[in-house]
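Data follows
____________
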Amino acid sequence: MSTIKWWINESYAKDDDCKGHRGEIVSLGKGAITSASNKHKIQGRSSTDDKLIGVHDTLPQVLWTECFTEAQGYHIDRNKVHQDNKSAQLMEVNGRLSAGKGMKHIKNRYFYVHDQVVQGNIDIVHSPADAPFPEDRMWADVLTKPKSGRIFWEDRSVQMNC
């Protein structure tokens, strides 16, 4: 089975203008093949907002990477998007059904992610930052917040496949 794995992580209101910051890492097997770090174009009202905005803004790249890889002659069975926020994950999978009163401000365009989940183009996977095994952790944490010590070295080893 061929799977493209994406780790997408955001930090809420990190910059001086209170906009979030997104980090993304892509893998086709072991180790990372590419990474990116970008500032959000709009402000989110919560960390859940920022997670939803981050996945929405990365989704065109996710779909393009699948199309490009298949155009090169490789078959892709799945796109897995790893996130560490359960609330955002539920909204992406269930759409408005998981949006409570505090999320009414989310615009419908961000439920494009939900549409892609329903169509089977992406799978949303929970990857907490504090998972016991480095392979299961949120890899993109290193792009949104500082790490040091054992956690840094373990994550570096997994990402570099060494």
Observations:
- The first helix runs from residue 47 to 71.
